Structures are given as structure tokens and as C-alpha cells.
Amino acid sequence: MKNNPRALAVEALTRVFQSKAYSNIEISNLLNKSEMSDADSRLMTNIVYGVIQHKYVLEYQLEPYLKDKKLDLWLDLLLQTAVYQMCYLDKIPAHAILNESTEIAKKRANQGAGNLVNAVLRNFQRHGTRDMPGKDTIYDMSLLYSVPRWLVDKFVEQQGIDKTKEILQTINQPSNVSIRVNTNKTTVADLQKVLQEKGFDVKPSKISAVGLVCESGNLVDTDEFRAGLYTIQDESSMLVAPALDLQPNSRVLDACAAPGGKTTHIASYIKAGEGEVTALDIHKHKTKLIRSNSERMGYEDIISTGATDARKAKDILNTTFDRILVDAPCSGLGLMRRKPELRYFRQPEDLMNLQRVQLEILNSMVDLLEVNGKMVFSTCTFDDEENEQVVEKFLATNKNFELVPVKHDPAMDNSVKDGMLKVLPSDYFTDGFFIATFVRKN
């Protein structure tokens, strides 16, 4: 069934929820091994993301027909894929969904599994969808937007009810594709024109002067990408390099660099022979990604890589830097639009565990930063535990550091509070993000 989009969707979802795998990686792996048409590939991808984004709703709709039955994971997910198609994909006939799902169950297990799927889906078809709750309670919002209650509760506590609803209403919408233009090889206007001529509907980013945004399309498979004229990068992460206030002769440490998007952005400000970028990552195989990106973008003479835990960097580096970026490990809650499965895999204790790691990395950088040097701390999440609280605790134990306002474009003024920049997923339809800047005083 390697060319059956519905069967492959079930396979991808089973891998995601069984192994806490990333959906985009599992989709890519399965598509690479299949021989499906573009239409079937899109259907498979749609089903996978749709089930993850609406999982609680689908479970709620199936509940009356399953009672307390304990199903194998793949079978439960197969039923969810069917109900997703019946509820959200109105161009597919219900009988086709029902028949196909029954056949998948038979082939994957036995006649009994096929009979169960057939019975449940016919029951659902007969009775129609259950009414969804519509109040602004934590339970109702959790169900309606398929986000764990503890997360909704935290969002409400930190952002307020209205802002939480804005966030939840946007995270299940398809994300855009955004690219950062390599302005050392082309201009934003010229690249936009070239890509438009190739059929891509690209528009300038609202928050980054070097960004272009496209609703959909395979922007990796172009001659311009291969030539290093641009790289795939979310708009909000394009705000990090400018925050470092870089100069042509800056000596920069990118402490948690893979896969290298921000590293090459940093390098675009540096002049070869005058400045340099040292890019570290804890995983050796990921440093290959950084080198590959730097070569494609034309910055191999500026960027050098090393495989080490950033918390131990001070023990192996025998130099100091005037700029340091700590793009710290985090929960990734700001990525829920692009990686919707993250909402189900995170637990409340994860946030404090990650805070501890973030502080360890920041504290390990203290002696590597020169006096008057700048250190930028960034995350792709928007909860206080991994952001403002980290800043507060770092400053409390490092009296020779002070927080200074993040360097940013005036267009981002509304996203800056107390000198720190925080972007919510609903603000500009980008990833959620946080940036703070420290200066070493003495």
C-alpha cells in the first residue's frame, strides 16, 4: 500500500504518535519511497496535518461510537483520518472514504478490523457531527482548537483570554513558506521578480527587510535556491541577526547553531578576512548541515563549525567574542503551526527543565564575551518560563551584565516590551519568537 495516500497518512501518523517524531520528516520519508502523483501526495500531507491539528475534535466526534473500546493506535488513527476527510474535505465522497478506510483496516489487520471501521463510520455518517461547545472555558477552547488544557490555561494566564483566542484561532491554519534573501548575491526585488516569473506568488515580508513570503510551493527545488540566492527561514527568526548589531569585523559565536539559517544570516553582515563566525552544535552530524548551508550561501570563508555542548564551550574555546548568539533549546511552542504535534508531546515540567538548560548555556557564555560585547538570547517559544523568567534569573546571578533594548525595525515596535521582543503566532502569522539582548559591562 505504498502508493495509497490514505494508508500512508495512517503510517505517518502512527510514527508521529508512537515515537514522538516530527510530522514533516515522516511525511517526507514516506513520500520519497512512494510513487504517488502530486495530487495524492497533497492529499496524504493534508490528512496527516489535518488529523494532528484537529485531533481532539475528531476524538470527540468518534467517542459515541467507540465508547470505551481500546483500539490499537493505528486503528484509532485510521478512524480519525476517515472522520477528518468526512468533516473537512468536502470534495471527497463519503462512500469512497468509508470503503477505502475499511479496505486499509482489512489489509493491515483482518476482516474483524474492517468490520469495526465500517460499522463505526456508517454510524457516524448516519448521525452526523456532534455540536461543538462554544464557551470561553479552558475545556471548551482545548477541545475546539485541539490544544492540551494545561497549555490553554497557561496561555490565558500569561496572555489573557482575548489574545489566547487569537493565537488558537491561527495555529491550525496552513503556514506560509518564507525565505530569506541572500543580499550578498541578489536583491529582494530582483529575486521576487525571478520567482514570480517561475509561478511563485511571493510577496515582501511585513517584518523583515530581507524576507519574502509565499503561501505554498516547493521553493527548495529551484536553481536559485541551489545557487544560494536564498534560504528557507521563518520571518520571525530573521529578526535575530539584526539584534546582534553586527559589524564587518565582528567575531561571533553562534552557540547552538544547527541547521545554520541564523548562522548564514549573521555571516551576511561579516566581511571575510576581517570578522568570523564560530558555529557550534551539540550534534556532530548537524554541523554538516551548517557547513552545507554556509557553502551553498557562499560563506564558507567566514563560518567555522565545531561539535560541542554549548554548556562546555568555555572549556574548549581559547578565545573571546564581541558578539554571542544563544538561540537556546526550547519547547518550540511558537512552531505549533508548522509542527502541530509539539502541543501533544510537551508537558508542564518540560518548560522548567528547559529553563534550567537555557540558564546553564547562558552562564557558560559569560567569560567568552568581551567587555562591552553583546549577547543575544532567543527562543522559538512565547511562554514566560523560557523567556522573561530566564532573563530575570540570568541578570540576578550576573551583575556585570545588563539588559539593553533589542535592536529592531520600527515596524516591530508593538512587539517590544521592557526592551525585549516577543512575537506571538497570531501577530504576523509567523512562528512565535522571543529575543533579548545583554551587554557585558565589566
Automatic annotation (TrEMBL):
Residues 167-441 form the SAM-dependent MTase RsmB/NOP-type domain. S-adenosyl-L-methionine binds at residues 256-262, 281, 309, 327. PROSITE patterns: NOL1_NOP2_SUN (PS01153), SAM_MT_RSMB_NOP (PS51686). Keywords: Cytoplasm, Methyltransferase, RNA-binding, rRNA processing, S-adenosyl-L-methionine, Transferase. Its main location: cytoplasm. The keyword Transferase applies. This is 16S rRNA (cytosine(967)-C(5))-methyltransferase. It comes from Companilactobacillus huachuanensis. The lineage of its organism: Bacteria, Bacillati, Bacillota, Bacilli, Lactobacillales. The gene is rsmB.
